[in-house]
Amino acid sequence: MRRKARGIKAKQKFAFILFVFMAILTVLFGRVVYWKVAHGAEFETEAKNQQINRYDLVNAANRGSILDRNEQVLAVSTAVYNVVLDPLLIAEEKNADNEKTNAKIKETFTTLCEYFPDLSYEDLEYHITMNAETNKINTPTHWKYLVKGVERSVKEELEAKKLLGVCFEQTSKRSYPLKTLACHLIGFNNTWGLEGYYNDEMTGTPGRSFILYQGADKVTYQDYEAQDGNTIVTTLDYTIQQYAEEAVKETMETWPSQNVAAIVMNPNTGEIYAMAAADTFDLNDPDEPLALETDESFQETWNAMTDEEKSEYLNSTWKNFCISDTYEPGSVFKPLVVAAALEEGVITKNSTFTCNGKITVADRDIRCSNRSGHGTIDVEEIMAQSCNPGMVQIIQRLGVEKAYKYVKEFGFGEKTGIDLPGEGIGLLHEESAMGPVELATYSFGQTFNCTSIQMVTAFSALINGGNLVKPYVVSQIVDDEGAVVMERGTEVVRRVISQKTSDYIRTALKATVDHGTAKKIAIPGYSIGCKTGTSEQGSRSRDDIWTLSHMAYFPAENPQYLVFTVIHIPDDYVDGVQSTAAMTKKIMENIIKYKNLEPTEATEEATTLNSGKTTVTMPDYVGSSTYNVTMDLDGKDLKYKVVGTGNTITNQVPKSGTKVEVGSEVILYVAKSESDSGTVKVPDVTGKTYSEAVKTLSDVGFEVVFNGETSNSIVTAQDPKYGVSVEDGSEVTITLTKQEGSEETAEEPKKTTE
Description:
The chain is of the alpha+beta class. 34% of the residues lie in helices and 25% in strands. It contains 23 helices and 35 strands. Strands 2, 3, 6, 7, 10, 20 and 21 form a seven-stranded mixed beta sheet that branches. A five-stranded antiparallel beta sheet has the order 12-11-25-24-23, with helices on both faces. Strands 1-8-9 form a three-stranded antiparallel beta sheet. Helix 13 (334-343) runs parallel beside helix 15 and helix 13 packs across helix 16. It is elongated and about 130 Å long.
């Protein structure tokens, strides 16, 4: 009985499940019938629409342009078009076997081949040909790209011919009409330089084009216009940028180096007028080094590189040296230390210090560029003559805590905030790690690193009234209708020094050009301030890794242009040979001509910057030291002859106030003072070979130190200079430069270094 009851229950359960299943099927079938009857026509139209919407085109927006301050175009995007074929549509028309349609297909393919020689009629036919194995056409798609990036005029001509199954997709082409100009700063690929930093602002909104059914059969077109990106207006001056790049290129060719660079900035506002570095590239084709076109040896090297090596090379080339690379700045840093000491009251502008040619700090001897010393020297002359012992004594008065405070206040150890990607920071000692030697070397810009833009920004605070201003490259962002959506002006980060200190530093640094280490950049009639720098890099066990620089500004009383030039690690460094003076002066002269700047000083030697002879009015040298006078005469491009022994000028020919032409000879009559007892006059050995110079100097009791190679070379510089009287047995350093055609050969002696 139990088994029978269980069987009945099982059948009842199965019947119930079957009933439920059938009921669900009935409901679903009913819904299908309902939707077919009630909405069938609607769904059919929608299906047609979906089929036709294969022509849903995305119209790319033009990327915003990049302009210089005078609206010179640096980067621009233009609309171009991709030619698209619809093989499925053409195949459907062909299958209709209509004579008129087939003629239209032939006309379409023939026209495409005429306009685009890389296309072949056979290939076009292949796309619409039926494949016997698959029973489908060979290219079963509504979207086949044929040609990309055709100009608007070509697109419009083809549209007028009403080709069958051909449509056009709008896209955008980026181009750089000036090719290499400001390449490191502008950047490319929406990642480097301004292209990367302002990518979001320059990227527009794409438009769309639809082809739709209206009703059941009629086709209509609906377009949504693309919105172009914003244009950015930079602070760059195309002309000044050219001047900077020309100077960099010429210097790099003269003295091959790891890099050569120049920055021109308004020190009052932070506006960058120019930023240039060596190893330029064509922004239109950045993956192809320019040297491939001109240097066969580089072509071989390039071809032998692995993909990884090529990538590393290109990344190094694209990098902006001026904001990314760090190095020890050297003596251009000295005025910052002087300003800090003045602010803290540990010195005054009338303070004097003693330089005997070197100063000992802990276990280190720190030498001056003037091996015989400057004697008693004031603050202005310490900067003008770039005296290391004087600077060490100043920073020792300042102390670690205050010195470190001002290093940070001037912006070292932090980014400037310039609107460019990839900015470096540099490396500073921790305050707790600064011992006596580290403090001393900080005074002349050694044992810490910074970028060029950090150095320029810090120096600007010295001469603009004491404000640290943020440097910037973009002044405005303008939308596609011309409305200004962003405008940037001067941004003061903080006040670092007082107006009084800034006024002193700004005018005191004129002495560097008048009679100090920057005499060679003097431009008659124009008031210029400057600080030079020569800084050792890397391991101190080598003496050929140096960075050379000039930080010049004009007019000195109210600076509008700050020009910073750098030669970073020249290949064959020889002390006293490589210099950024020529490139600095050339950039300044070109700016003066371009801006038609009036002379700032009504001096008799003021001349035009064109051709013609330049005259110099003789200063009064009587009573001055031979060392300072000979330096001054070199800066004025005057030759000199010293009569007598000693370091005090007693008479001169021509007399003071006389106008003489550049290149003339001046006779200096000298006598010994009490401090000159036991001294010997240094003979002139410039222009002599190594062996001749050694003999001449040795005969009068001097020891010889040399830089450069001794064979096939002549002496191009000497320190101390000819005519200066120094102690018997002192060292004289000579600089040797290779000369073409010299037949002298000499055994290479051991090189002496400090």
